[in-house]
C-alpha cells in the first residue's frame, strides 16, 4: 500500500508540552492547518515521566515528613502499615492517563490533527511518518517545528550500567526499594533522592564533587548538601563507579565504586538510578536529509527566535538544550506560532530567556532566579555587587523539641549598582516553590532593593524576610 500524502501549514514533530502548545496556538487561534506527530504518549516528559508524576510523589514524601513532625504539635499518629508504594503508583499512573486524554481532547478542540507515529525527514519540507500500525504517511509542510525533547543518559563505559534505571524507570517501580543508590548531582538526582529517603528507603547519593546542584548559588549548594546529610541521606563525594553486577538468584545489585573515603568498595542495592544528564531525542529524525545543524552533543542549534539554519524549520525545548524547563518550551512554542501565523503585529515575537525562575523540589525546596553571586561578580565586578543574606528557623519548627528536627531556611538577594537592581534571588526552605513565582515577577520587572523594602511585610511568614533584609 502506497504511503498517504498530506500537506499542511505547520508540522510539529513531538507531542510534548512545548510542541503541543505551539500546535494548538497555530491552529486554534490563527487557523493554520496543523499536524502534530508523537510516537509515545501525549504530554512528553513533563506529563508522563517528569514534572507531573514527580510533584505528586514529592507531595507523598512531604506528607511523610509532616506525619513525622506531627507529634511536636500534639498529634499522636500511629502508622498501621508502611507507605503503600504500589497502590500509590497505580493511582499516580491513572492520573497521568487522565491527563493524556485531556491533551488529546484539547488537540481535537483546537482542530490539530494528531498522528501516533515516528517521524523522519525526507527533505527540507517533507517528512515521512511511520504510524504505529506500520502504515506510512508523507507530509509536506510549509513550516516544521522539531520539539522532540530528550531522554536520560546511561553511562556507556561502566560494565553492567544497563542493570540500573533512569528517571523514566523511577515511575515504573512497582514497589519501594529498601536500599537505593542514585548517581548524579543535578536536580533530578536531588529530587528523587529526597523522595526515596522520606518514603522510607535507605538512600545513597553519589556525586563527583563535594556538593550538588552546582549550577546554583553556592549558598544553595552548601546548605542543601548539609541538610540532606542531616536527614540521613548518605552522600558519596568525589565518587566514581567501576561496574554494576546483579545476583541472578536474589536479584540484588552490587555497585563497585570509589569515593573520598575509599579507593575501592562495594555496595549491595535493590536499585540504582542513573541521573547523569539527558540527551536530545534526535536519533532517527534523519536530520541530514534536511540539512539541520546540530551541536557537538547532538542538540539542534536554534537562535532566540527558534530558527534553525534551514528556513522554515524551527526547534525548541529540550531537543535544543536551551533552559530545559517545561514552561520555557510552552512559552517559546506559543510565541513562535504567533510570529509565524499571527500577522505583522507578531513579527518580532520571541521568548526572553533572561531571568527565568526555577525550582528544585528537594527537601526543603530550592528556588532561584537570575545570577548566582559568583556569576554576578564576574559580570558586573565586585565593586558593583552587594549581597543581602538571611538565615533563620521558620516558625513552623518552633514547636519541635530538638534542633536536629529543624530544617534550615536561607535567602540571598544579589543586587547591582547604585540603584541596587536585583540581579539574583536565591531561596531555600519550606514554601519556596510558591513564593518564587511572585518574587520572580518583581525581578523580571527590574525591581530594586528599595522596591522590596517598600512592600509591607506579611506577618508571620517566611517570605516577609525577603522584604525586610538589612
Automatic annotation (TrEMBL):
It comes from the Eukaryota. The keyword Transport does not apply. InterPro entries: FAD/NAD-bd_sf, FAD/NAD-binding_dom, FAD/NAD-linked_Rdtase_dimer_sf, Glutathione_Rdtase_euk/bac, GSHR/TRXR-like, Pyr_nuc-diS_OxRdtase, Pyr_nucl-diS_OxRdtase_dimer, Pyr_OxRdtase_I_AS. It is found in: Cytoplasm. Residues 356-468 form the Pyridine nucleotide-disulphide oxidoreductase dimerisation domain. Its cofactor is FAD. Disulfide bonds join 46-51. The active site is at 459 (proton acceptor). Keywords: Cytoplasm, Disulfide bond, FAD, Flavoprotein, NAD, NADP, Nucleotide-binding, Oxidoreductase, Redox-active center. It catalyses: 2 glutathione + NADP(+) = glutathione disulfide + NADPH + H(+). Its EC number is 1.8.1.7. Binds 1 FAD per subunit. One of its GO terms (molecular function) is glutathione-disulfide reductase (NADPH) activity. The keyword NADP applies. Residues 9-333 form the FAD/NAD(P)-binding domain. FAD binds at residues 55, 318. NAD(+) binds at residues 184-191, 277. GO terms for biological process: cell redox homeostasis; cellular response to oxidative stress; glutathione metabolic process. GO terms for cellular component: cytosol; mitochondrion. Gene3D superfamilies: 3.30.390.30, FAD/NAD(P)-binding domain (3.50.50.60). Belongs to the class-I pyridine nucleotide-disulfide oxidoreductase family. Catalyzes the reduction of glutathione disulfide (GSSG) to reduced glutathione (GSH). Constitutes the major mechanism to maintain a high GSH:GSSG ratio in the cytosol. This is Glutathione reductase. It comes from Cladonia borealis.
Amino acid at each position: 500500500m502506497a504511503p498517504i500524502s498530506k500537506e499542511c501549514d505547520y508540522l510539529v514533530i513531538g507531542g510534548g508540552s512545548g510542541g503541543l502548545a505551539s500546535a494548538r496556538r497555530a491552529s486554534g487561534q490563527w487557523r493554520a492547518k496543523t499536524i502534530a506527530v508523537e510516537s509515545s504518549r501525549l504530554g512528553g516528559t513533563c506529563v508522563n515521566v517528569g514534572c507531573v508524576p514527580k510533584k505528586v510523589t514529592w507531595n507523598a514524601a512531604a506528607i511523610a515528613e509532616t506525619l513525622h513532625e506531627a507529634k511536636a504539635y500534639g498529634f499522636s499518629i500511629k502508622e498501621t502499615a508502611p507507605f503503600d508504594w504500589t497502590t500509590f503508583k497505580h493511582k499516580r499512573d491513572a492520573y497521568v492517563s487522565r491527563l493524556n486524554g485531556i491533551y488529546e481532547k484539547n488537540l481535537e478542540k483546537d482542530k490539530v490533527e494528531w498522528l501516533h507515529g515516528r517521524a523522519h525527514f525526507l527533505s527540507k519540507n517533507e517528512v515521512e511518518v511511520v504510524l504505529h500500525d506500520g502504515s506510512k504517511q508523507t507530509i509536506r509542510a510549509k513550516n516544521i517545528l522539531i520539539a522532540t525533547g530528550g531522554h536520560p543518559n546511561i553511562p556507556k563505559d561502566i560494565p553492567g550500567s544497563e542493570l540500573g534505571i533512569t528517571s523514566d524507570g523511577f515511575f515504573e517501580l512497582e514497589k519501594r526499594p529498601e536500599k537505593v543508590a542514585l548517581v548524579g548531582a543535578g536536580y533530578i538526582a536531588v529530587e528523587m533522592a529526597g523522595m526515596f529517603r522520606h518514603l522510607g528507603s535507605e538512600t545513597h547519593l553519589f556525586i563527583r564533587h563535594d556538593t550538588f546542584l552546582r549550577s546554583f548559588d553556592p549558598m544553595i549548594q552548601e546548605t542543601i548538601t548539609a541538610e540532606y546529610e542531616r536527614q540521613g541521606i548518605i552522600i558519596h563525594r568525589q565518587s566514581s563507579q567501576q561496574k554494576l553486577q546483579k545476583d541472578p538468584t536474589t536479584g540484588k545489585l552490587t555497585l563497585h565504586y570509589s569515593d573520598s573515603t575509599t579507593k575501592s568498595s562495594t555496595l549491595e542495592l535493590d536499585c540504582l538510578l542513573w541521573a547523569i544528564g539527558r540527551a536530545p531525542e534526535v536519533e532517527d529524525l534523519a536530520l541530514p536529509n534536511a540539512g539541520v545543524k546540530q551541536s557537538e552533543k547532538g542538540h539542534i542549534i536554534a537562535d532566540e527566535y527558534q530558527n534553525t539554519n534551514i528556513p522554515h524549520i524551527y526547534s525548541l525545548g529540550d531537543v535544543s538544550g536551551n533552559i530545559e524547563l517545561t514552561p520555557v518550551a510552552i512559552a517559546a512554542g506559543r510565541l513562535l506560532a504567533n510570529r509565524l501565523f499571527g500577522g505583522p503585529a507578531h513579527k518580532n515575537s520571541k521568548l526572553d530567556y533572561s531571568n527565568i525562575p526555577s525550582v528544585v523540589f528537594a527537601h526543603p525546596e530550592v528556588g532561584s532566579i537570575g545570577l548566582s553571586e559568583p556569576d554576578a561578580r564576574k559580570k558586573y565586578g565586585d565593586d558593583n555587587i552587594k549581597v543581602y543574606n538571611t538565615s533563620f528557623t521558620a516558625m513552623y519548627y518552633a514547636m519541635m523539641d530538638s534542633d536536629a528536627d529543624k530544617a534550615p531556611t536561607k535567602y540571598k538577594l544579589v543586587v547591582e549598582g547604585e540603584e541596587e537592581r536585583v540581579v539574583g534571588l536565591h531561596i531555600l526552605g519550606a514554601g519556596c516553590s510558591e513564593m518564587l513565582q511572585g518574587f520572580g515577577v518583581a525581578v523580571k520587572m527590574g525591581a530594586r532593593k528599595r522596591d522590596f523594602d517598600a512592600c509591607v511585610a506579611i506577618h508571620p511568614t517566611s517570605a516577609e524576610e525577603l522584604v525586610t533584609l538589612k
